[in-house]
């Protein structure tokens, strides 16, 4: 029986696997139609693939002409209805049996009768998928490995119904994409995941039972068994939702409790911590997908929400103590300050407590506030204010003592002390003037006006504004990014930027050059430059 010649390939699902499959198929010379839940996602993925091809050109691994020709062969489409002229469709949507059954039926209806239909599923029965189509003989599994452009294997899974010609044609297509093929019959997990997933789950059980930390388990596996990644790093890369889905298929279809998923895995997925693609799993990742060691970012929450986190002696004294502890912590690389509740960062110094103060008492309180501000400014690590609501009076001043501020769109800022017959006593005059300029600082301090987040952004009081529910996540991302940089370098940058504000420019430049030179010879300087030259991420130790 003649089989179809493959010229146009449809890829359904433009996530990490679908994008990789589209890239290798287009590189192999196929015209590729890429679809996801909508055209926007498919277009975004296509642009990402084009950027990836650009990087290969920069690295000399692909010619500019080849990259351009490959990018031209990639066409984002709105959905399955556009697969009518495809000779092969490879489904790479989320690992969910009901979804895949639905997508297979829809693809079958849209595709021409002689076209082939493959699934990149990691575990779901291909026989079951074939059975919902009118072309069961033309269906099979085409299981690529992650990351697709780098991994050489494709596991072809024969459904019970798969015709020999379908297998041969797909094997040739996989080989044209530069892959080596192994063949599996249709059984839960096929060959590779039957072996891999129990191993990943066993590593998770070890964490769950407190046998070892994720870091020790991964290091043990890497150095003791020699795979390029540890099992928990690999689980994060695959996607914990995908690992859970595969584990569930193995457990349900084989029926042996040894395949059950660990509660820890279920909980991480419930929390939305699905691994590298979601920014957090067993490890935390920055937006470039680089691992951020945990424990490097600390958070202080001003916690008196019933009084809008107003600063009383107890709260400020506690802050003083905690900051002193943080100064001694050699592991922290960034600190976030935020307010409890959804209404305030801090609505100022406690007015009830201040109302009975004498001049000398007020002086002592002001000095305590300034001591806290100086503690934050002179910490070696950056301090970021996540302003989630009112930041008035002492609250605004506390945010100003942080290195920079991000705010929720609901945040409000002001120095309303003149309404109480006093002036800011915690740095609100001078730090505000340095942040937004003397004219704006004067106006805010003289009028007591309260401004919204947009205006605060416009005048440079805050660096960014975010939806309230996204604020802390965004600030954590920034802090996590800082935590991946050289801690000594960040500390020197913070020191020079602060001290340089108060001295003439030539002196500030001298400070800079001294700090620049002082970093040479540090382990971090050697590591940072060696990592760049070795084309690998740097692993800074803060020495
Ligand atoms: C003991 C002294 C402190 C020692 C620490 C040292 C710190 C550093 C010393 C430096 C001294 C100088 C600091 C400084 O620059 C001076 C100031 O900060 S003066 C204060 C400036 N802030 C304000 O004027 C804001 C006052 N608050 C408001 O205007 C409103 O609360 C606000 C518009 C923010 C919100 O209004 P609304 O939504 O209607 O909420 P409520 O008003 O009902 O507030 C709920 C609850 O919280 C209490 N509260 C709010 N702000 C303060 C405050 N600053 N002090 C004390 N209590 C506050 C409010 O009274 C309500 O409490 P209930 O018990 O429910 O009535
Ligand atoms: N992540 C991995 O390491 C590997 C995953 N696989 C398999 O590849 C498939 C995809 O996995 P990933 O790319 O990792 O997941 P992913 O979460 O990165 O991508 C899934 C994509 O499917 C899309 N999608 C969901 N519903 C859809 C619908 N109705 N129509 C069109 N698109 C839809 C999503 O929008 C998303 O872009 C799964 O079957 C998985 O088991 C196979 C090998 C390795």
UniProtKB/TrEMBL annotation:
EC number: 1.1.1.35, 4.2.1.17, 5.3.3.8
Matches recorded under Gene3D superfamilies: 2-enoyl-CoA Hydratase, Chain A, domain 1, Lyase 2-enoyl-coa Hydratase, Chain A, domain 2, N-(1-d-carboxylethyl)-l-norvaline Dehydrogenase, domain 2, NAD(P)-binding Rossmann-like Domain
Annotated ranges, domain 3-hydroxyacyl-CoA dehydrogenase NAD binding: 8-186
Primary location recorded for the protein, binned into one broad class: other
Residues passing through the membrane, by range: none
PROSITE patterns per the UniProt record, alphabetical: ENOYL_COA_HYDRATASE (PS00166)
Record text on subunit structure and interactions: Monomer.
Stored PANTHER family: 3-HYDROXYACYL-COA DEHYROGENASE, PEROXISOMAL BIFUNCTIONAL ENZYME
Record's protein name: Peroxisomal bifunctional enzyme
Lineage of source species: Eukaryota, Metazoa, Ecdysozoa, Arthropoda, Crustacea
